[in-house]
Amino acid sequence: MPTVLLLKPPHNKHLSGVPGHQAPRIPPAMQGDSMSTSPGFLRKAFDGLYTASGVAAALCLICILLLIVAQMMARWTGAIFPGAPNYAGYMMAAASFLAFANALNGGAHIRVSILLSAVPPRIKWMLEVWCFGIATAIIAYFVYYAYWFVYWSWRFNELSQAQDATPLWIPQSVMVIGGAILLVAFIDNLLAVLFKGNHRLGSNTVDQSFGE
After folding, report:
1. Which residues on neighbouring strands pair with residue 159, listed in sequence order?
2. Is residue 80 a part of any domain in this protein?
3. Is 179 in contact with 142 (CB distance < 8 Å)?
4. Cβ partners under 8 Å of residue 103, min gap 6
5. 146 and 177 in contact (C-beta within 8 Å)?
């Protein structure tokens, strides 16, 4: 049986303007589609989430200051501000949990990197994966049980025993939100180490020295 060969003429750029001549079509997989911008969008979304949590933590610190000033004014004027210390405690807990993810990516957390700086790159990569993997598992465990802790507080309508009588699920829910954002940050860095070879943590020796 004879074999028929179909030869496709090469594309000539000089014929692109000739009527009736069609340029070869580029497969969609090779074209720049909207999916190529997805990593950039996700990166901006994650960074915006970390920044927003840090801003929320800063606002909680401002609320603590305002509560202290309000309590001082109440004492000077002889008024009563019940539950002010409790509200300040709630804001302190909220500021701590909401700032975890932002502080992690900013390099404010204390990291002992003596061993990492003394091993070969391959061993360093394995240790980074192990550290971020363990941290991700621990935070996921915490967030899971913290969620059910808040759920049962809401289900049984537990109230604070102090003068504020606040439903405890309200301040406790901030703990779950901050822990979930921290979990996202650890997963983000774990994936960066796995697929890019390096984490996204910054280096802030000033904040680390304050923590020490």
Report:
1. 167
2. yes
3. yes
4. 54, 109, 207
5. no
Indicate the pTM of the whole model: 0.72
Residue 174 belongs to some domain of the structure: yes
Domain count, the chain: 1
The model's pLDDT over 133-164, given as tens digits with 9 standing for 90+, comes to 999 999 999 999 999 999 999 999 999 888 88
Q: Give me 90's structure tokens.
A: 């709630």
Collect all residues with Cβ–Cβ distance below 8 Å to 40 and sequence separation of at least 6.
none
* pLDDT tens digits, one per residue of 15-25: 444 455 454 45
Is the CB of residue 46 less than 8 Å from the CB of residue 39? no
Show the domain range for 165.
Answer: 50-196
Domain assignment of residue 86, yes or no: yes
Largest CA distance in the chain: 109
Position 82 in a domain: yes
